[in-house]
Amino acid sequence: METTSDFLNIKDVNTAFKINGKYYDAISHINLKVHHDEILAIVGESGCGKSTLATTIMGLHDPSETKISGEIEFEGTDLLKLDEAGYNKFRGAKIGMIFQDPLSALNPLKRIEDQISEVMTYHTNFTAEQKHKRVLELLDEVGIVNPERTARQFPHQLSGGMRQRVIIAIAIACKPDLIIADEPTTALDVTIQAQILDVLRKIQQENHAGIILITHDLGVVAETADRVAVMYAGQIVEEGTADQIFNKPKHPYTRSLLRSMPQRDNENDDLYVIQGNVPSLQKMPTTGDRFAPRIPWIDASAHEANPSMHEVEPGHEVRCTCYKSFTFPDQTGSVKV
Ligand SMILES: Nc1ncnc2c1ncn2[C@@H]1O[C@H](COP(=O)(O)OP(=O)(O)OP(=O)(O)O)[C@@H](O)[C@H]1O
């Protein structure tokens, strides 16, 4: 459903990488909308295409090595039609990005203040004084206790959690409408993770931004997301509100991910392990259910030949009809895995 708050509309996007002279799809036929005032989480195992989707939105691919098709409509502009100069007007200004590894995203030789100011120099007409004031404001906003001191410091003088706060400050410096956070807490310990997620949530509420949160960690999703898109092997296999995904999951992949997630009350139980691996791009099946090889006990006839998305309730869609007959091996009582 189209609403006035849809400001990012990804339509039938494919991104293929050139490997040994041939192109292979890393993401296929992605359709996704992001609204203002929401955190949309994209989850899936490593290699499912989450980062490729993020870097496709940000226009970070080398056109000589990548083929991209489809449309990414952002506030009325098709980002995929922009050249580098056009993209630079959006990146940092209207779209902010937070990467996993804050140390490699920061310049080790520059003071924090200069790194935060840089983005404002590029995108605003602020005077030096205005930029200085905004740097301190931003550091305060992301929860840095002594902004004056941190502004003067170099990245190596900060802890991992503080560095990630600085990265967030850079990403939000120009009040972007869209923030893409790719595994923003993976490198941090659990307490710091929770603080960074709080900062993200606060910023989303204050700036009315839309956030795409990419993570393989369902715990992070449960704590933060409003909506969730589950990706498997370059496709979205299920999409819904956080409540629908956690409480009424349908796709066998979503259910497997949830079952393999440690729970506070089943710490001593054996966790479910999803058989096999995400296929490499060269081995990616082009027809059939891409997850079928990892649930071999489900009869082939349960899968659609070319699985499409089906609405199960408003806002909740699932790929393939196999979810209707899916059970785990221990639930069927008759299958050994
Ligand atoms: N530049 C590239 N050239 C060739 N293949 C690539 C390139 N970038 C990613 N891939 C492949 O595309 C697939 C999707 O990778 P991607 O990094 O998007 O997945 P992901 O879900 O974000 O995983 P991770 O969490 O490990 O980053 C993988 O098979 C990966 O090996």
UniProtKB/TrEMBL annotation:
Q: Which protein, by its recorded name, is this?
A: ABC transporter ATP-binding protein
InterPro entries the UniProt entry points to: AAA+_ATPase (IPR003593), ABC_Ni/Peptide_Import (IPR050388), ABC_transporter-like_ATP-bd (IPR003439), ABC_transporter-like_CS (IPR017871), Oligopep_ABC_C (IPR013563), P-loop_NTPase (IPR027417)
Q: Where are the transmembrane segments?
A: none
Q: Where in the cell is it found?
A: Cell membrane
Quick check: keyword GTP-binding in the entry?
Answer: no
- GO biological process annotations for this chain's record? peptide transport
One Pfam family in the UniProt entry: oligo_HPY
